[in-house]
Structure formats: C-alpha cells, structure tokens
C-alpha cells in the first residue's frame, strides 16, 4: 500500500477516535500487588515518562496508524519517542492526564477482552480493540461533537511526528533543506506531494 493511501486511511479511520474516559483507579490492585510479567520485547526508545507497558502500547498503536510499507512506518521514524516528548514536555497537566488515561483505558480493554495488555495481543486482536473503541467513541461524539478524544490526539501526534521525521519529510513530503526563496503558497496538482519546506 502506498504511503499516501496509508496516511489517508489513518486520517479517515481515526477521525472519530477513542475517548480517554477512565482514570488510573480502574486498574488498581486489591490488597497485594500482582506481579507484572516481563514484556516479550523492549521498546525501540528509552521511555522517561511512560511505563514499559505504556511505551509498548504507544509503539503498537503508532504501527496501526502508520505501518511500514515500501517506506518506513511511524515506529521506524521515531514517532513513539516524539509522542512521549510532547506529552511529557509540551502538554498541560490536564492534557497529559487525559493521554495517560486513554493509554490505560486501551490496556484495560485488552485485559477484559483477551486477559493481557494491548502489546501482548495479536495484531488482529489489537485492530479489533481499536475498532470497538472507535465505534463507542463515534456514538459519544454524535452526542457531543466538541469532545476531545484520546485517539484523535494520538493520531494527530503520530502524523505530525511522522511528517517532521526524516523519512516522512523526505519520502512522503517534498523536502528542500535550504529553500532558495520563501514561497508562502505553493500550487499543487492533484496527486502531488505537499512540501515539508517551502
């Protein structure tokens, strides 16, 4: 699938995205803490804000939005680390809490449906979880179109991070490291790639 088709599908598929509705308390342990098994893999970046399980979920969700095709996907482009940096350093306290709550809700949904966190689910199970949550969110957005949702934020961060990365800027967008002159409006023909720089 061409990168343009993947981006187009991501924008369409996640236009009505998962809502960050529940807090951290839903996962609370009763009495003694349960031992969390070691993950089957490590994330490709060293997380500072995210717990290990959260970092792996972010990687997997990025991969569902912009998978690797004939060009690098979001994970290979370093988007998960970009997302963590934005959430940790740019987001407000309320935005950060909403984002982390959305991650937590997706892990809770995975545990309810498959008895394990999101990153341990198969790709098909992950896709099914996202589709179920998208359907729930569409119903909620129909009642409140201004509602802020987790996956809408996640999608925007993923696409922004990808377009700012070297693969995104040079393989999906046109890129000119040192523009000869400023052009505030560049005409494009149908099917042309937009510019990472003008």
- Percent of sequence in beta strands: under 5%
Helix segment count? 7
The unreliable regions are 10-33
Give the oligomeric state of the chains in this entry, treating copies of one chain as homo and distinct chains as hetero: single chain
Share in helix: 40-55%
Overall domain count: 1
> What is the averaged pLDDT score?
78
Rg from Cα: 18 Å
Helix-strand category: mainly alpha
Number of strand segments: 0
The H-and-E topology, N to C, reads as HHHHHHH
What does the secondary structure layout of this molecule look like, with pairings?
Elements: H1 3-13, H2 52-65, H3 79-89, H4 93-114, H5 123-143, H6 150-164, H7 166-172
Helix pairs in contact: 2-3, 3-6, 4-5, 4-6, 6-7
How does this model look, in words?
- This protein has 198 residues and is mainly α.
- The protein has one domain (3-17, 40-172).
- Helices cover 51% and strands 0% of the residues.
- The protein has helices at 3-13, 52-65, 79-89, 93-114, 123-143, 150-164, 166-172.
- Helix 2 crosses helix 3.
């Amino acid at each position: 699938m061409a990168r343009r088709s993947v981006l187009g599908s991501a924008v369409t598929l996640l236009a009505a995205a998962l809502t960050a509705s529940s807090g951290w308390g839903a996962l609370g342990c009763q009495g003694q803490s349960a031992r969390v098994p070691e993950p089957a893999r490590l994330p490709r970046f060293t997380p500072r804000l995210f717990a290990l399980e959260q970092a792996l979920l972010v990687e997997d969700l990025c991969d569902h939005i912009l998978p690797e095709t004939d060009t690098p996907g979001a994970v290979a482009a370093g988007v998960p680390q970009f997302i963590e940096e934005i959430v940790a350093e740019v987001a407000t306290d309320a935005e950060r809490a909403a984002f982390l709550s959305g991650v937590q809700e997706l892990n809770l949904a995975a545990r309810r449906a498959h008895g394990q966190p999101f990153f341990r689910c198969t790709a098909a199970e992950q896709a099914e979880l996202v589709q179920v949550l998208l359907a729930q969110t569409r119903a909620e957005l129909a009642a409140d179109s201004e509602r802020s949702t987790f996956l809408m934020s996640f999608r925007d961060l993923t696409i922004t991070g990808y377009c700012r990365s070297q693969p995104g800027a040079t393989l999906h967008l046109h890129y000119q490291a040192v523009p000869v002159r400023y052009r505030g409006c560049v005409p494009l023909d149908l099917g042309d790639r937009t510019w990472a720089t003008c």
